[in-house]
Amino acid sequence: MHLKRLAAPKHFPIRKKEYKFTTNPKAGPHPKKQCIPLQIILRDILKVAGTAKEAKKILTNKDVLVDERARKDLKYPVGLMDVITIPKTKKYYRMIPKKGKLTLIEIPKEKSTTKLCKITGKTTTKKNIVQLNLHDSRNILIKNEKDAKPYKVGDTIEITLPDQQIKKHLKLEKGNIGLIIHGKHEGENGKIKEIKKIMGLQKNKATITATKKDIETLKDYIFVIGKDKPEVTIE
Description:
The protein has 235 residues and is mainly β. 9% of the residues lie in helices and 39% in strands.
């Protein structure tokens, strides 16, 4: 199924009226409106391919890794915090929100083997094994219930790639650094000043102190990226 260019998400760096259709990202770890397919990344953002055919050849040769795994599908969706590695050029990139759009930024090699993931759910299996559900559709199992207790929905964990070992735990709490990932302030970041619990049908809210201003947003829109300083490059 094709995607009309006029209906494409605003973060697709394509000319809306040049052609009628563009690449439609396939179903995967990220929602369709919150990702960019690999073909557009290689051709229109990184410009390592001039055409879809060239992009396909690069992927077929396993020259592009997403989160340290080779991906060969032109429509594979790359989304929030995903890491793209191009071994032949020794270039590394991370997908972050910036100025209201998903943006690829270049990162150093040492940052390319870890990833921040937001905990979006927490369940217990029949064998009393705790499962952490992450924003990119990953699931991490923790066999010891006591070890799993500190992890809360909304917190962030730093994992190693590709083996998914938990390296660090960042709580969604006052004083930590939060990145706004949705809404009109998408891409803004700063220290979490306050988290408000709202009674009734409204969702809980949070305030972060960005550059000389306070921004109030939904608590669900906050992605914790560090304690004293960001754990990932965001500029």
